[in-house]
Amino acid sequence: MLGNDYADQTCSIARSLEVVGERWTILILRDLFLGVDRFDALVASLGVTRTVLARRLAHLVDEGVVEKRRYSERPERFSYHPTAKGRELMGVIALLMQWGDRHYPHPAGPPRLLLHRGCGGGADDHLTCDRCGTRLQPEDIDAPLNPALAAG
Amino acid sequence: MLGNDYADQTCSIARSLEVVGERWTILILRDLFLGVDRFDALVASLGVTRTVLARRLAHLVDEGVVEKRRYSERPERFSYHPTAKGRELMGVIALLMQWGDRHYPHPAGPPRLLLHRGCGGGADDHLTCDRCGTRLQPEDIDAPLNPALAAG
Predict the structure, then answer these.
(1) Minimum Cα–Cα distance from B108: chain A residue
(2) pLDDT tens digits along A23-62
(3) Is A65 exposed, middle or buried (0-12, 13-18, 19+ CB in 10 A)?
(4) Backbone angles phi, psi at A87, to 5 degrees
């Protein structure tokens, strides 16, 4: 029996979901990847309650997925940034985004593009640049708003 | 505000999570990919309640991610199989598994291997065969138990 968590399972997926499987966590990581890095901005972007967001962020910091940085002393304020371990989840999020784009398409096209930074090619379903063939790493990927959608 | 679901977000990740973001869904898909395809076997494998499993499976069937097949008429019994749309999530699950293997390693090595069927090479972090370079599709990937772990 799993009971309330998956920790007793000898399964790397189950153990990953212990860290990033909660309801909001993937969307928090999405926002952090996009540069939404302050608590109040995350609340506004996600519509999550402050209590839930604080709990999720604390868990991600404890697990070394997110780093907390103080950007103001008075009042004390923090921003949040994916660590290298956290950035490795970019691929999971990119594939989930592509799957959503294929099966739940927005009429005007994908809300965001996944582009090879500096090249402008797109990230394909193997996280490889469809223009130059580079195997993309998290830091190589830009995810700008689709201009077609922004115009609409 | 998101309220209780993500459906109002113009975001393909949020829309994907509407379908596959619930607590058990990724683990249900993992089991279906591994060939655990009957209701009672899924209950035993996951330790999920029958009520929750029935609800999650019904949602996946409604969304076209899983197909329900009757394998017995008396008593009426069904098995569950990923559709083509569902199989496309294999990449998300494979990357999540690799992330767990890297950051929450089992002492004896990864619980399961991701192998290129018929070749025996491993799937790398771009879902490409590390032996022959093939860009792997879901149907190309085997996920056997790691013999090292099975022996332990």
Answers:
(1) A10
(2) 789 999 999 999 999 999 999 999 999 999 999 999 999 9
(3) buried
(4) -60, -25
- Kindly state the tokens that stand for B16: 């994907």
The region that residue A64 occupies, defined by phi over 0 for left and psi between -120 and 50 for alpha, beta otherwise, is left
Q: Is B47 left (phi over 0), alpha (psi -120 to 50) or beta?
A: left
Cβ within 8 Å of B, A 77-116: 85, 88-89, 91-93, 95-104, 106, 110-112
Determine the residue of chain A that is closest to B29 in CA distance: A13
CB proximity B15 to A under 8 Å: yes
**How distant is the Cα of B90 from the closest Cα of chain A, in angstroms?**
10
Say if the Cβ atoms of A100 and B16 lie within 8 Å. Answer: yes
- Tokens 């990119």 belong to residue: A94
Query: 3-state DSSP call for residue B82?
Result: strand
Task: State which residue of chain B sits closest to A29, comparing Cα positions.
Answer: B13
CATH fold label, B12-83: Arc Repressor Mutant, subunit A (1.10.10)
Q: Rounded to whole angstroms, how far apart are CA atoms A90 and B152?
A: 33
Looking at the complex, report in whole angstroms how far the Cα of residue A89 sits from the nearest Cα belonging to chain B. 7
| Side-chain-side CA neighbours of residue B64 (13 Å) | 6
- Calculate Rg over the CA atoms of chain B: 17
CATH 3.30.930.10 fits A12-84, yes or no: no
ipTM value: 0.90
Instruction: Evaluate if pTM is beyond 0.80.
Output: yes
Domain residue extents for chain B: 12-83, 89-151
Task: Please state, in angstroms and rounded to a whole number, the distance separating the CA atoms of residues B88 and A84.
Answer: 26
